[in-house]
Task: structure prediction
Amino acid sequence: MKTFTQKHGFEKRSYTIHQEEGVVDVHHKDLKKQQKFQIELLDIGNKIQYEQDNTLPGKITLVIFIAIALSCTIYYFYAPPDDKGSMVVGGIVFTALALFGYFKPHTDDLIIAGGNKTIRLFRKQPNQKIVLDFANSLIASANEKRKEIAINFTLEKYEFEANLKWLLANKIIDQEEYESLLQDYEINRIIMRPGN
Result:
């Protein structure tokens, strides 16, 4: 059992791998909702993708809103008496917009895709290397479960070969392991043949 927890702002994501049961417990929590569910390891893909918002326009807008809010506050003390109300309203509005821009979560995720279910991890929480290591560990666990199910020496030869070709095509095994498993299958067939 391996657990990985991430926090980013007001959002928390937690993943626990149960290799024996073949599931991952997922727990997502933010200000609006809380989700708990399980994903089968077989439903997890083996492709890593990245998704990130373009934050530069948001940062520029945030700086402009802060500058306007500060200007309204400073001008409040130097403005004629009839303009003070508009400066207070402007200061409050632009401060609220700046706070909204600051606290609005931006997408910067590492995504494990290619399966029936998608896993989203914060790309830089705690740092990118640790997140990538966990993602690779999760993919390796899912691939081990796939191998465990697909490599069955009691199958007919064409079914066994089809499973191995699928594993090879999806880069779960390499060519050397493919050939080794075919040899093991033939040896197992000779040993299990009636009359031996």
Residues 151-196 form one domain. Strands lie at 2-8, 11-18, 23-29, 34-40, 47-52, 108-113, 119-122.
